[in-house]
Amino acid sequence: MKMHPLFIRIVHWTNAGAMIIMIGSGWKIYNDEVLFGLLHFPQPIVLGIWAQHALQWHFLGMWVLMVNGLVYLAYGILSGRFRRMLWPIRVREVVTEMIAALTFRLKHADLTHYNAVQKLLYVGVILVIIVQVISGLAIWKPVQFSFLVSLFYDFQGARLAHFLGMTAICLFMVVHVALALLVPRTILAMLTGGPRIAPEPAAAPVPLIRGDRA
Q: Cα separation of 13 and 19, whole Å?
């Protein structure tokens, strides 16, 4: 089995496209009613001619991301991929490898195993996206989803959480792309499937104790 099966590659690039659509259109929506007076996103980098147009793009990206994301989460949990690739995360390893990354000494010889920093980033962005979906629903239908709005104190709190989540995702994408460019084999692996990995060995059968016989 390859490191990245075809299903994972399709989901990955679909998520990437949906996220770019949501970020670009979200910037245009933000410009229509800013949270921070000095912050406006230039027209050349936003998606949408006007706010309503951007909303249509945003809804498209939202539904693609929600459906695709749910399928990805179900696959990752049921197939054991999350357990195999993203667990465990040890604080000592994260600190050690983060220092190595900042000093350009981080090694990535084995593509089939994520280092502690990668595990933390991937788990973190999954959690951020889940919060983005919840806060986005609260902003979209604040009356119908008033119980979601209350999770963020009020409507403006939901908007702030959504904006901060967008910022975190943008930072993740910058780091993710930068690391991929530093190790081009990772990009190729997400296009071709990467190296093959050995299947996990089956658990050894538990010996039957004579006293357990019927």
A: 10
In a domain, 99, yes or no: no
Q: Is residue 132 part of a domain?
A: no
Give the CA-trace dihedral at 16, 17, 18, 21, to 10 degrees.
Answer: 120
The CA distance from 192 to 67, in Å, is 24
The single-letter code of the amino acid at 135 is S
Q: How many domains does the chain have?
A: 1
Q: Tens of pLDDT along 99-111?
A: 877 776 666 666 6
Q: Which domain holds residue 47?
A: 1-87
Q: What is the mean pLDDT of residues 155-175?
A: 93
pLDDT digits (tens, 9 = 90+) for 109-146: 666 677 778 888 889 999 999 999 999 999 999 999 99
Among candidate residues 60, 48, 56, the one with its CA nearest the CA of residue 17: 60
Measure the CA–CA gap between 130 and 28, rounded to whole angstroms. Answer: 22
